[in-house]
Amino acid sequence: MSAARPLEPWRWLGVPMLQALIATVLFGIPLRVFGLQLPEPIFPMVLAFAWAVIRPSILAPFGVLAMGLFLDIFWGGPLGLWAICLLIAYGGALSARSIMAGQSRLILWAWYGLCTATAMVAAYLFVMLDSKSTAGAVPVAWQFLATIVLYPFAQRLIDLFEDADVRFR
Amino acid sequence: MSLRDNPLGELKVPLTWAAAIALVVAAVAATAILISDRRETFKAEAYGATRRASDTVLAPVGDVLSAPGRWTGAGVDTIRDYFFAGSENRQLKAELKEMRQWRDVAVALRDENERYRTILGLKTDPPIPMVAAHIVSDSRGPFANTRLANAGTERGVKAGNPVMSENGLVGRVIGVTDGASRVLLLTDIASRTPVMIDRTNARAILTGDGGPNPRLDYLRGRDPIHEGDRVLTSGDGGVLPRGLPVGTAVKGLDGRWRVVLASDRAAIDFVRILLFQDFTQVVNVKALSEMSPPPPTPGPGTQPVTPPKPPAPAAGAAAPASDAAKTPPGTPTAKAPSATPAAKPAADAAAKPPAKPATDKAAAPKPAATGGATKPAADATKPRPAAAKPPAPVPAKPKPTAEAPHP
Questions:
Q1: What is the CATH number of the domain that holds A61?
Q2: Is A136's pLDDT higher than 70?
Q3: Which of A32, A70, B61, B68 has CB 3.0 to 4.6 Å from B267, enough for a Cys bridge?
Q4: With a threshold of 0.90, does the pTM exceed it?
Q5: Spatial distance between the Cα atoms of B387 and B218, rounded to a whole number of angstroms
Q6: Interface of A with B in 16-55 (CB under 8 A)
Q7: HSE of B392 in the Cβ direction (CA atoms, 13 Å)?
């Protein structure tokens, strides 16, 4: 891909968003094998981190908002919960973008984990306020682990599009 | 290349600022949506048109996507049945032998229960109609535990209906649309279910926390629960019927009592939605609210000063009663029976054969006023001198003498 070629939004925003939503729906199938169920990672977290690292964008926050609202509707949770939590993760990654520039893959993974943890702590607090009850720590930890192992997908997206726009190298 | 050397560097700052403003706008929109959400009320109107529309779309999609999983499961079951038919047959025979004994016990208990219900005139709950559906999507995260079932308003499902698997209670419907129902699981953090411990009848609230084993809050009573106790729905509040199996009590690692859900024994693919209507749904609230208020109770100032005349058939006994009424309190005639005014008629009834129902009722442990009032009627055939056995030591309350004894 040449640098002169414009970075079209559907390539780095549209297609990955569709993939994340399809993956969410597929992992929502009620499948149980030997008493074990599928994990439930937050696939849009990958995009919320990767989009912020690739470049600042006007469309990306609204893409994150749309994915969050889809999660809330699909999972049946409070409407707006994951929308705001994903935006918190996106905002955190965007503000730390200059610090993350040029870092190794492992350090970026740690940053991804930090953004995910921030979003999940925010979700924990919002749900606590909403339902006046605390969520169990173990299920929260399981979802956190299931989400942070998705970092290679974020890294692949970053590798694909980080150098696509010369203004944000 | 450094920022200074980059010829397009001057474009970077405005675009970054625009992106930041877009982020703020999106965050404000998300916050407004979160604040305006009324999911926690679990009212039918709070579910919203957006959720209903999305459920209508997602249900057939989930149905198609989950079909291969169901077919695979059915295929695995078929192969397993083929290979393990012999051992399963032996196991089922043993189980059948045990169940036959239980069947006899159940039949005897059912007959006994029916007899008691007839004697007591007990109004039992009517049978609850139900609708079968299968689960087409599932969310298992810590902040939302819901499932989508492929039966909706077209089959009479309403918000609030309980949902069961073949093993036990799964949850209840919180949103319904044409062709789909959203089921809030017992494990959801917003789920609160009134339950009781089968052994002790102790009440508790089953509270979900996103994990597989919801906890028991507000347990009451002394030593109300033991490990392995069966937990059932209590029916308190009228949302769920009483006696649905919920699970088994266990002590959690955090020291709290939790429930291993009965519905977790097998995969929840097919469910039954009970079309249960609680009292608040069935009752005609309008008719109740239109009821005229009861007449005002007469105060002490409005009560009649003179006692009413006693009934005509008990004239023979009424005479001593009126005599006693005329007797000033403090005289020996009124003092003797005053210690046990209600026990006295009971003793009389025990001494005499129960020829009259009135005598039997007088022997029952009724309040003193009723017992004292019944006595003259029971002894009407056997008048006795007032000095020997005064009939009623409470002549200042003449009203009960005019009333029939309570059944």
A1: 1.10.1760
A2: yes
A3: A32
A4: no
A5: 60
A6: 25-26, 28-32, 37-38, 40
A7: 31
